[in-house]
Amino acid sequence: MNQQLFALIDINNCYVSCERVFNPRLNGQAVVVLSNNDGCVVSRSNEAKALNIGMAVPWYEIEQQALAAGVKVFSSNYALYADMSRRFFSILEQHFHPDDLEPYSIDECFIQLSSYAEHFDVEQYCRDLIQRIEQWLGLPCCIGIGTTRTQAKLANYFAKKRIGFKSLCYLPHMDLCSYESLLLETPVSEVWGIGRKISKQLQNHAIYSCYDLTFANEHYLGKQFSVMIARTIRELKGQSCITLNNPATPAKSILSSRSFSSALTEKSIIKQAVIFHVNRAHKRLTQQRQLCACVHVALYEKISVPPYKNKLSYALGLEYASDDLLALNCAALKQIDVLFKENKKYIKVEIMFSALHIKQHYIHDLWQPLAQIQQRDNLMNTLLKMQQRYGSNCIQVGYHSANTAWQMKQQHRSPRYTTCWKELLTIHDSALTVTQNK
């Protein structure tokens, strides 16, 4: 079979769906999940969408009206969502070879189906997959299938919006008239990689729908916009020419940043936040098996005029590239001593590792303390084994305090049902009695 075939599978309203798995009372109700510090709406149930609650709308703007309408609100529960995502991808790996899976986000994955189409009825195979994920995880999914990744993404959109597809849209099996009808009815902003900003610019070229873009002059638009527009047009026509970045490729820099739940004025509390973000960045550094030679720290000061924050930054190069958590923390904390000013209010901290080197290929020179480097390597390996066995918080670098003002505001977070022993779902005796009586 020469024709390539791609599928895109994703979880419907992922964060909301994860909340509903452990709280079935939310089924059929309007539910929203908020972003960091309970800022904006990042996930909505279909019932919430019916109330015209938009994506990324600031929560403070709609809070009173939403609560009055009975909307249930939750803070982002990243531990829960990440664990459910892990289980989701685990099921995919049972159905497809890992080389055929291209993870796109926490709840989305492209699948190369060409080889499977030679031996299976891929449409039925994918429908069985949707049913299994629903049965095993309780998460509703949709699948779009096309001859390119852009078509698969668009087909997934159709599968979500059209009940008649029953959660799966197989574009290659659709007759041309029906396909063109769908393209005419779909705004061009729904095409993968276009978005609202570019779609407004495309309107100046009389391109309003997916149909208009599919049959537009790719060479002309490529010169007016970018080569990606030309590739997108070819993908809509069925020519595969867009690939995903290889997730195994090491990053050139690693960033960890988050706003405080409230403005801070104490250096010791800010240092707690710095250590937290250094630990997050260090975890990614070790996962990618890289070494860091430069640590950047940025501290955002609250000011009274737009943009209401002033960025203060500093960078410190290390004596040698390292993945030593203690050395990285020391470098970051030294920069806080330089940046911090008394009687100022700070609202955000940012940690970035740069000048990264692949650990396996890095060669230390003779002027470096090789014995100390080896000793610290052993220490980091021991730390990693402890965290794997006893959890990531079993041992921490200093500045521990009960003051958590630097942490995210999560006033509506649900329990971490699958990752925290103290928050596991429990069944009360009364519930057991009721079940037994039934």
Would you kindly provide a written description of the structure presented here, covering whatever features stand out?
This protein is an alpha+beta fold. Helices cover 42% and strands 20% of the residues. The strands form three sheets. The chain has a five-stranded mixed β-sheet. Strand 5 (101-105) and strand 6 form a beta hairpin. Helix 13 packs antiparallel against helix 14 (325-339). It is globular. Mean pLDDT is 89; it is low at 430-438.
Q: What are the secondary-structure elements, in order, as H or E?
A: EHEEHHEHEEHHEHEHHHHHEHEEHEHH
Rounded to an integer, what's the Rg over CA atoms? Answer: 25 Å
Globally, the shape reads: globular
Largest sheet: 5 strands, mixed
Strand order of the largest sheet: 5-6-1-7-8
Class of secondary structure makeup? alpha+beta
**Helical content band:** 40-55%
Overall pLDDT confidence: 89
Tally of separate helices: 16
End-to-end separation: 55 Å
Determine the strand fraction and express it as a percent band. 15-25%
Number of strands: 12
Which regions are unreliable across 5 or more consecutive residues at pLDDT < 50?
Answer: 430-438
